[in-house]
Amino acid sequence: LKIVTILGARPQFIKAAAVSSLFKENFDEILVHTGQHYDSNMSDVFFQELEIPKPKYQLNIGSGSHGAMTGAMLIAIEKVLIEEKPDFVLVYGDTNSTLAGALAASKMLIPVIHVEAGLRSFNKTMPEEQNRILTDHVSELLFAPTQTAIQNLQNEGIKKGLHLVGDVMYDGILHFTEIAKKKSTIIQDLNLLEKQFILCTIHRAENTNDMNRLQSIFNGLNAVNEKIVLPLHPRTLKYVQEYGISIGEHILIIEPIGYLDMVRLESAAKKIVTDSGGVQKEAFFLKIPCITLRDETEWVETVQDGWNILVGANEKHIQEAILTFNPTTIPTNSFGDGNSVHRMIEWIKQYQLS
Ligand code: UD1
Ligand code: UDP
Fold this sequence. Notes:
The protein is 47% helix and 15% strand. It has helices spanning 10-23, 44-49, 66-84, 96-107, 127-138, 147-155, 168-183, 186-189, 205-208, 211-222, 234-243, 259-268, 277-285, 300-304, 315-324, 340-353; strands at residues 2-7, 28-33, 57-58, 88-92, 112-115, 141-144, 162-164, 198-201, 228-231, 251-254, 271-274, 290-292, 308-310. The strands form two sheets. It has a seven-stranded parallel β-sheet, sandwiched between helices. The protein has a six-stranded parallel β-sheet with strand order 10-9-8-11-12-13, sandwiched between helices.
């Protein structure tokens, strides 16, 4: 059984690290890298340290406007599918690479597997929300991480092919947390002390592309009296420079880091401040209080359980949450039991037999 898997952006490499090692024992999986992320610290580092198999196809599409990027991917992926004639095409999450892969396959009547199906922010101005909705509606097998995701899909009239499997990023973090502790030296390298720093990431378009929002976020971060470590996404770096935003001396800006270093920093952080989907979940898995720089989240369970607070780009709320947000509730088990990849494998085999 042949599966072509489309990868392109950082969170997809991390999801593939949990999935592809188990797929290898069951399927003939061919990886296609669209090239959406291409800097070595946004791409190569994950393939090297997480032992993700080498992609057979490197499409080298690179950055661009949504239409140009997605269109170029669509053309290039179609060529791969004509060549490989797979039984399935698998896509992860909600990036432009996800949508291009799903659309190319669907037009060729190749069943699409969507991993992380059913997530919704109900904010259609987000490129990710558009990508998710479109991808879900052309998918044959929809692997949902949470019960909320299943409900969202049912509410949109999708009834067939839905499976609650749990979150592959939870499988991943269970596997990699101990490895990160043994291998990563980032705490020593940056002279950090356990539980005495805040970890922050910012990259979401709604925050970077709006000068007032980005400035307000940095006003909030600049105002607190805590060490903040901020591995900065290249998109955000570009805008910080363009807007001329000044950054407090207590904020340590570093380049994007590998996953093992990231998990090590997450585990050691006192709190996490982020607008990333993946980082919100990882904070929850590791029981680190999470302050989310967004007005809504797809990962509602993290908020309902009391471990995540939405502060948007409001500088006062950011400041206050960094000082006072200290959850003590016991989080529920909303993201599965760490065996979601095994469940996916069984459902794919069953679909093929039916
Ligand atoms: C993309 C996804 C977003 C995901 C994020 C993960 C879309 C629409 N967005 O956002 O959902 O959360 O990846 O990190 O698919 N750049 C570099 N080097 C790189 C990659 C990007 O310099 O290796 C810079 C370029 O200036 C580029 C900008 O970052 O224009 C944005 O990259 P892009 O892939 O379009 O979006 P992300 O913000 O990374
Ligand atoms: N991540 C990483 N290095 C970094 C920042 C993030 O390895 O410098 C990891 C993080 O641990 C998580 C994933 O990247 O597993 C999240 O990706 P990102 O925030 O880019 O995208 P999103 O999840 O918001 O789509």
